[in-house]
Amino acid sequence: MLENLKEIVFHANMDLVKHGLVIFTWGNVSAIDRKNGLVVIKPSGVSYETMKAEDMVVIDLNGEIIEGKLRPSSDTPTHLALYKAFPEIGGIVHTHSTYATAWAQAGKDIPNIGTTHADYFHDSIPCTNDMTEAQVKGKYELETGNVIIQKFRNINAVHTPGVLVKNHGPFAWGKNANESVYNAVVLEQVAKMAYISLTVNPDLTMNPFLIEKHFSRKHGPNAYYGQKK
Asked: Which residues pair with 92 in a beta bridge?
């Protein structure tokens, strides 16, 4: 079942290792088949060194295992909440990459202070609010999804495809698994560059019209970056 999507999700998970976003088992990628309402996700706690495509777990949007011998990622409820809230999303990544996680632990948004950031994220990459004791002690992973959704009430999740969960780490997404990995890599890189930039000049500023220019030339209605498809 969904053998092609399993292969895609498997290789996307392996790309997290290739790009240095995860160590040990600290990350996961999922993708959704919207037509059938099914999600393929990495199994929980399985080493990247031994993981195979057939280990990917197929679940429905209620979290029920449809196919797979292993338990799905413990972050599954977060992924499912985001898929339900944002129908444009086709893939989701969660990592504990160093710089993005540092911003999350500091509880700070990553400001849009450069054209690299603006090429991929229209706004600052937001950090969620503190989770309450009830949220943490209740359905924690589901509530993690809920605090992300709440943060994006006034933010376009397509134009800013990533978030920092306070004291936890980053999530990124895209139209498919591969794009979500790409956005996770960019998120980590802009987190690193923002940290260095603010260390060099804590009083730096960014021209808002430069943000608009760089974002629109890639994502606007008259985008001209790259080749015509």
From this structure: 30, 173
**pLDDT tens sequence across 149-204:** 999 999 999 999 999 999 999 999 999 999 999 999 999 999 999 999 999 999 99
119 an active-site residue? yes
pTM score, whole prediction: 0.95
On the question of pLDDT at 228 being above 80, the answer is no
CB atoms within 10 A of CB 37: 12
Q: How far apart are CA 17 and CA 24, in angstroms?
A: 9
Is 229 part of any domain?
Answer: no
Active site (annotated) includes residue 99: no
Q: Which of 15, 99, 119, 120 is catalytic?
A: 119
Q: How many domains does the chain have?
A: 1
Domain limits for position 157: 3-219
| Residue 229 binned pLDDT confidence (cut-offs 50, 70, 90) | low
Residue 228 forms part of a structural domain? no
Average pLDDT, the chain: 96
- Per DSSP (E only), the strands in 75-192 are 91-95, 162-165, 169-174
CA-CA distance, 181 to 127, in Å (whole number)?
Answer: 19
Query: Which CATH number goes with the domain that contains 130?
Result: 3.40.225.10
- The answer as to whether 26 is a domain residue is yes
